[in-house]
Amino acid sequence: MFQVGQYFDEAGNRTGAGWNYTKLSLLRQEALTSHCTHGCSICRDQRRKYIFREGASPYIIAGSGAVSSNENGDSCSAGSINPNGFMYMETFYFAVERIKLLTSIDFSTLFMDTCYSKLETHITLSTMFNSSTNAILTTADGSFKRVPISYFVVFLGDPTSDISLVLQNYLGLFDVPQLSYGGSTTWLNDRMRYPKFLRVTPPDDEQVKLMLQITKEIGLKKVGLVYQWDSAYGQNGGKLIMDQAREMNVCVSYTASFSRDTDSVDRVARQLDQKSRNNELPLAILLFVDRNSIPGFLSKLQTRVNYWSPRGHFFIASDTWGSLRDFIDGTVNVVNGSLTVSYSDKNITWIDKEKGIDYFKQYLGRQTPENNFDNPLFMQYWQEHFHCFIQGSYTSSSDTQCDLSERLYNSASSHSSNLLTADTYSKNMVIAALKVAYAVRDLQDELNCLGSSSTQAMCKEMFGIAENRERFFELLKKVEIPRQFWSRKRDYQPLNENGDGKANFIVKNIVHNGRNMDYKEVYSMENGQLIKGESEPIFYKGGRPWVMVDEECQPCSCLNLPANKTSTHEEHDDHYTLTCLVITILVIVLTFFLCSTVSFLWSQRIIRNVMNRVTEIQKQQSTGELNSFTSQMIN
Asked: What's residue 576's pLDDT?
């Protein structure tokens, strides 16, 4: 099986000769400067920004996600694969397979690695869409292919708000429909500005409303806020929390923000430690930051904050945290008792409980390095996941031979659960793909392109006609999909009238499960209505459960409410404040009018006095002239 000699011994283990340890990976000397050949996973220093696969149809289904790790802000690292990004890729190909099954069209595919970087995404798109009519794509063999932009049927992406905005700057110019599975910022609410943008997730104001409702439900008097200021998601979320907290009469007594910069995260961690030490920090902190920033932030808190657990502090985190196990491993002192929000449309399922089939798990179980040809990074991830190496691949530093009979979801790694159902973004992508599949199918039906008639020239060029593309977008907005993934009965519309996902969430509580931490559902929201679960949330103080009592921190004044108003005052205080403002304005107006009147009367008096004096002077002058004339006549 292995080439015995300079690089492998008879047992298939590496001999160490001819291999060079580098910062990026373990590579053969000559591989450092050469491209990978067929059968070898893409070299890390040569990783492409997107993967373009040509199908029987020239029309393209595109998608995006962060596959490469982003360790330096806007610079992309070609090192280890981001497990969540790998999951997005596999979900994308799983979704495309379903589209092909439902439409009988073998679409070409393009998956773009955004690396969580707006700059990298901008560079990739500007290189791709370098003319008004054509896109320049790099094929699997490294050659360039000129493709009409109109061949892009739809873009399924992105899971982040920032990248969704960058995508719209390009896709909007060419009227390419974008169906996002995670871009939730309210900055994308304006359909006049973004007419071809749709999303299967609700805008962020809905989950902010849920987070604030939870604070009231569990009896919190005051909350804190930590958000990420250098992202559209965090910046917009922070503003929404402050605005809606004011409207909902929730007191925010502490705010802090950080960027992806390590020093910025460290500064906030030290500030939280100091505030907690001095009892100046509210028990609950609302967290609204990007997904790729959460692990570093929690890790800093774990090492910096000493009074967090003894004081009983906890987070109420937005959907970027969700229910990912990666985020709670090794951070027990800062995450236990926290509440996390996840978007979850329970009306859709890909698990057939009657037959015992998990369709995504079934798909993933079929994927091995021997048969997965759609995803060139599959071999590298397999080696990283199982800490092994595969013949012909120079991207693993392990000396253990890979067992190709393994399955990703069977391993003990915490990433395995993410590859199945823990990350709701993957389910969102499947929902988006079902919308695409049935919109294409309905367009085929309208054009009489189903069955044997699909070989007609008009059917082959279905998306090459502008009117058909417009009709497809209309169908994409309004088409219903099955509630069960395996069914053909279409009876559910996951989008509202504005083209946004419905306000369906679940809230999970991070609790102790033996020696481990686990997520337990405690609340849900369906169509904007908060629903209590069967279990009550559990909060911890000093690592032990306690009945949470929101003691007043000192001093903790409200930053978003007037000084004479606290979160426990009734709504009539709003009217009182408004009345005071109106009275103040009236006093100012009346004072101005009074002053103006007095000034006018005073000026009139002065004018009369002056006129009287002038008249007297004139009389005196006239009398003097008459006396002088009389004297002259007598003389």
From this structure: 42
